[in-house]
Design a protein that fits this description.
This protein is mainly alpha-helical. Helices cover about 70% and strands about 5% of the residues. A two-stranded antiparallel sheet has the order 1-2.
């Protein structure tokens, strides 16, 4: 199995496109850093009356919460009010100096870019074998087909983790150079089940990167399945990328009217909604979402492996 994974890894890095993807990820991160550095050049405005501002903001949020009929919106208002009250009580100003961890958090938006690149690799890792005709050489070996496909999937996941590591490490180094380290320990105010707690910012960022990548992993798995079943990388790339950018938005719109939206894949891929305390559909819980993700994952893998095992080598 290890040798099969090494072989697939070498195939990926023999393609010039792989290095283009890595370079693009680094360049876009650098451009983002330059943008925030340019924004930072403006004059620093010190708000000595931020506590009064937060009190006024809470009054406005309370009025909006009373007028809202949506329990999801009410939960969001409660979260914002609780965090503001915690800041006032513990004298934690919302106007913190921009630093390396602030940039790493902002750079996490580029996780969608790593997802895009991983989907491209996943969609082609099986389909390209058929289009290039190398599938015959691969399947006539005395190696179980399940092992062959498993090695390909593991390689795709390793590549996804590789891109995430590049994004996190490079954004940390770039952020440290451009914005510097914070003068004192920075905490993230985490709201969960009506309570606000201070969380180490590095722990929060690692958890955020991990949970935010679940959407990427599930769509990568779907692209892998389509590639295996239909042997068409274009279909796998097109459909997966379309859902990557629109799946969450469409699901959010459906959830406003129908409760069955909680069974849709994209209602469950964002586990941060439980950490932050604002689930998309009322009644959803983290165990429920994890269960739904497992169901989708198993279905995708069964379709991929059953089809691949029955595929005629001559095809």
């Amino acid at each position: 199995m290890v040798n099969l994974i090494k072989n697939e890894w070498m195939k990926i890095f023999k393609r010039p496109g792989t290095y283009v993807m890595i370079a693009l990820l680094i360049i876009v991160t650098a451009i983002l850093g330059a943008f925030f550095k340019y924004q930072e050049k403006g004059p620093d405005v010190v708000d000595n009356h931020w506590e009064q501002t937060l009190i006024q903001e809470n009054d406005a949020l309370n009025r909006q919460m009373k007028q809202s009929s949506s329990k999801v919106e009410q939960q969001f208002f409660k979260k914002e009010i609780a965090i503001n009250e915690y800041r006032i009580k513990h004298h934690i100003s919302p106007h913190e100096q921009y630093n390396v961890w602030s940039f790493v958090k902002n750079a996490s938006d580029l996780i969608v870019l790593t997802g895009l690149f991983t989907i491209i690799i996943s969609a082609g890792i099986v389909a390209s074998e058929f289009s290039w005709g190398t599938i015959k050489l691969l399947l006539i070996r005395p190696i179980n087909r399940t092992k062959i496909l498993t090695s390909k999937y593991i390689t795709v996941i390793l590549f996804a983790l590789f891109l995430l590591a590049i994004l996190f490490i490079f954004s940390t180094l770039l952020g440290a150079v451009l914005f510097g380290m914070p003068e004192q320990t920075v905490s993230y105010l985490n709201y969960y089940k009506g309570h606000v707690t201070e969380q180490n910012i590095v722990v929060h960022l690692l958890m955020y990167y991990g949970l935010s990548s679940i959407d990427m992993i599930m769509l990568t798995t779907m692209a892998f399945m389509i590639s295996s079943v239909f042997r068409n990388s274009s279909l796998a790339i097109g459909l997966s990328i379309f859902l990557l950018f629109t799946g969450g938005q469409f699901t959010a719109l459906i959830s406003l009217k129908y409760s069955w939206a909680k069974y849709i894949l994209f209602a469950n891929t964002d586990l941060m909604q439980y950490v932050e305390g604002t689930p998309m559909v009322e009644g959803m819980t983290m165990p429920f979402s994890i269960l739904m993700l497992l169901v989708y994952f198993i279905v995708f893998q069964l379709l991929a492996f059953l089809t691949f095992k029955k595929r005629d080598v001559a095809a």
